[in-house]
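Lab notebook, bench 4. Still working through the backlog of constructs that have no structural model yet. Next entry is a single chain of 278 residues. Request: give me the C-alpha cells for it.
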Amino acid sequence: MQIIDTHLHLVYRPQFDVPWLANYPAIDRAWTADEYFATAEKLGIVAALHMEADVAEGQMLAEAEFMATAHPRVIGAIAAGRPEHADFAQHVQALQSLPHVKGVRRILHTMPDELSESSQFVENVRLLAEADLSFDLCVRANQLHLAYELAASAPKVQFVLDHCGNPDIANEGFKSWSVGLKKIASLPNVAAKVSGIAVNAAAGWSTETLKPYVEHLIEVFGWDRVVWGSDHPVLLLNGSLERWVEASLDITASAAESDRAKLFNGNAKRIYRLEAAR
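Model written out:
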C-alpha cells in the first residue's frame, strides 16, 4: 500500500525557531526530511505534505517557501497563517505565488475559543476558497462545535479536521467526541485526517485501543473524505512511526483495497490537489 503522509512536521534549525518544542524535551531538536524518509520509505510512505510547525510568526512565509526544496518526496506544504490579522489577505496572496503550498493552518486547540468566532477570522478564512487553498482544523474534542461553526460559515472552503478531532482516548472520551464529530461530518466541505490520536491514548496503547475511534471516523465521514497522516515527530511522544503505520494498516485490513487506497493516498491527491507522488 502506497502511503502519502499529509501531516509531517519538519523542523529545520537554525533557519527556523519553533518555540513550543521547548515544552517537549524528548523531541526538542531538528527533524529533517532526510531523517524521516530513511524510516518512512521502508514503511511504504512514498511522499509527504509538510504541516506547518508553528514557527515564530515572523518566519511563517519563509518556512512555507523553504519547503519547496526540502526534499524530492515533500510534494506540498500546508502553511501557517493568522486569519485573525487584518493583513491576512496579503499573506494569502503571497502563498498563492508558491505552487507547492496547498493549504493553510491556524492552530486553534491552544488558543481561546473566541479566536475563530470573530467576524474578521471568518471573513479571512473565506478568502481561501478563491485562492484554492484548504484550511486544516486543529481543535480539541470539546471545540468541535467551533470547528463546525467555522466550516459552516465558509462553505466554499475545503476544511480538513486534523487528528480525528482529538478524542480523549486516555480518559475514554468516545461518547462526547462522537457527538461533535458526527455533526461536523454532516458538512460536505469537511474531510478528516486519521492522525495524531496515539498521543491522546495512555502509554502502552494497542491497535485495539485506537480502532473504535478510527472506525467511527471513517463511518461518519465515509471513505471519500478521509486522509492519513503521521503527525511525526509529535507522534514519538507516545509511539513510533512504525507502530502507527502498522496500527493504521491493521485497523483497515478488512476494508476493500480500493477504499484503503482512498485513505492512504487517493483522497490526499484530490483534497490537497497534489501532483503524482514521486
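Notes after review: The longest helix spans residues 207-221. The radius of gyration is 17 Å. Flag for follow-up if needed.
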